[in-house]
Backbone:
């Protein structure tokens, strides 16, 4: 199936509310566990000196879970949509576990405009994460350029996203499955996201052709791709 790009930022209020109100916790907990296992395997423990950055953080679902998992580590969630950042701030403010979120903050910025020497990065990033972001980025090189510029030799990258289905029929089947659980706005967005997603070969070939072979790409089940490692 040909890739059909979708808008990068999620800015429509209805779209943001639908996304924020949906329960994706199973997949989110799974991602935090995957990151944790990877760090353990690499013998890396995160503490007060470290910085975690969550690119395309949306309403903060992953950022909050990162902050809860590593409460002594500074976590910065970044999103280019003002509406999403407002939601993320709101979710943080109404959280019942404020104590664990005191080192979490949000920044509204397009990922393409972040420079490693500005506001956030008084220290080097130890863990650079994204979930469901890559498919939003129109040109793959913009995503990799960003993570390359934000990474240093201590930065562990871990980016998870949807994998583009083989054909239209498979994409429609996934949309129908989505409709059993989520509302129409969200399922339409999911369908657009599936069509905008990249394939394993597109991500893998990009890394091989652009001197990024220290990053690995793997298929996580039949629906997801993970790009991880050092840049
Ligand atoms: C599908 S949501 C995922 C949100 C969150 N990572 C999660 O897993 O719940 C994708 C988010 O990426 C943001 N985004 C897309 N392109 C972006 C860009 N170029 N710069 C900053 N944020 C971007 C969108 O605004 C949206 O909030």
Residues:
């Amino acid at each position: 199936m040909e890739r059909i790009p979708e808008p990068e930022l999620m800015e429509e209020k209805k779209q943001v509310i639908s996304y924020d109100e949906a329960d994706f916790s199973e997949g989110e907990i799974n991602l935090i566990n995957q990151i944790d296992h990877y760090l353990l395997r690499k013998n890396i423990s995160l503490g007060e000196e470290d910085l975690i950055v969550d690119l395309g953080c949306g309403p903060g679902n992953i950022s909050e879970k990162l902050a809860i998992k590593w409460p002594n580590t500074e976590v910065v969630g970044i999103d280019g949509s003002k509406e999403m950042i407002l939601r993320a701030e709101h979710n943080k403010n109404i959280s019942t576990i404020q104590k664990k979120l005191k080192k979490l903050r949000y920044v509204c910025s397009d990922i393409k405009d972040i420079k490693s020497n500005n506001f956030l990065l008084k220290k080097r990033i130890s863990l650079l994460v994204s979930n469901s972001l890559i498919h939003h980025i129109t040109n793959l090189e913009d995503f990799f350029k960003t993570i390359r510029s934000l990474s240093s030799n201590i930065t562990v990258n871990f980016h998870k996203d949807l994998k583009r289905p083989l054909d239209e029929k498979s994409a429609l089947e996934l949309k129908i499955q989505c409709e059993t659980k989520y509302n129409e706005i969200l399922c339409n967005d999911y369908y657009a996201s599936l069509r905008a997603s990249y394939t394993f070969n597109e991500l893998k070939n990009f890394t091989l052709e652009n001197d990024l072979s220290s990053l690995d790409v793997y298929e996580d089940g039949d629906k997801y791709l993970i790009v991880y490692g050092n840049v």
